[in-house]
C-alpha cells in the first residue's frame, strides 16, 4: 500500500455493495477517509419490471470490511431520489469527516426494457440517477473543492455509452439497455464539459467504466448467466488512478478498467491494497470504440 490518499476524504455513492463498495475499499486502503452512502442502512429493495428484488449488501458491511483492513469509513444513509436527503448529503459528509476531496458518482438504477415496452417512470428514474444526481452532487462539492484548491470527481460510466458494435449483435437487439446506455453517454459528455469548466480550479473530472461488465448484485438480474464479466478490482484501481493526479495532468477522460491498466502497465492491487493481481488483457470482443490505451480523450 502506497497510502497516496492519506489526509484526503472521499464520498462514494451506492457503496453498500458491488462497484461502489469495491471503490470505497480501494480508496480507503490508500489512506482516504471514506464516506459510504446508499439508500438505507438495510438491504435495498428495488422495483424492476413490476417486481420487487432484495439486493444483498449493507453500508454497515462495507464499513466493517474497510475497518478490518485498517481503513476508516463512515456510513450515511441517503435516498438520492429524495430531494431533501440528496440536498443534505454533501453537508452531512463534510460534517462527518471534515470535507470532500473526492466524489465518486456510482449510485444507479437500471431496469432494462425495450423502448416499446418501457414505462415512463423507468425512463425518468434512469436519467435521474445517471445524470441529474451527478449534476447535483458535483454542483454541491465544487465550491468546497475550489476553496481547498483541489478536487477529484469520478463518474462511473459504461462501454454501453459508446456506439454499439456493427453489425448489431444479438445483445443489442434484445438487451433493452438503450435508455441506460443513452444516460451513460450523456454522463460521459457531462464529464467532459464539467472538466473544462473547473480545470482552472484544479478539479479533475473523469469517467471510469468497466471494459466489459461487472457481476454485481444489481447487474445479476440484467446480464446473461454466461456473460464474461470482469473482477471489480480492475475498475477500483482505475478509479484510484483518476484520484491522484492534478487536473492539468488528467481530466476530461473516459477510461475503461481493463484497457487502461493493461495499456499503461499499472499494477492492479487487491481491494485492501496488499496483493498484486495478475495482468488482465482486455478481451478481443470488447467494444472496438474503446481506444487501445483505454481512454477516450
UniProtKB/TrEMBL annotation:
Chief subcellular location: secreted
Cited SMART domains: PKS_KR (SM00822)
Localization, UniProt: Secreted, Cell wall
GO BP term, pick one: monocarboxylic acid metabolic process
Keyword ATP-binding: no
Residues covered by the Ketoreductase domain: 8-211
InterPro entries named among the record's database cross-references: KR_dom, NAD(P)-bd_dom_sf, Sc_DH/Rdtase_CS, SDR, SDR_fam
UniProt keyword annotations, A-Z: Cell wall, Oxidoreductase, Secreted
Pfam hit, one: adh_short
Signal peptide: none
GO molecular function: 3-oxoacyl-[acyl-carrier-protein] reductase (NADPH) activity
Domain of life the protein comes from: Bacteria
Catalysis performed (reactions): a (3R)-hydroxyacyl-[ACP] + NADP(+) = a 3-oxoacyl-[ACP] + NADPH + H(+)
Family the UniProt entry places it in: Belongs to the short-chain dehydrogenases/reductases (SDR) family.
Name of the protein in question: 3-oxoacyl-[acyl-carrier-protein] reductase MabA
Lineage: Bacteria, Bacillati, Actinomycetota, Actinomycetes, Mycobacteriales
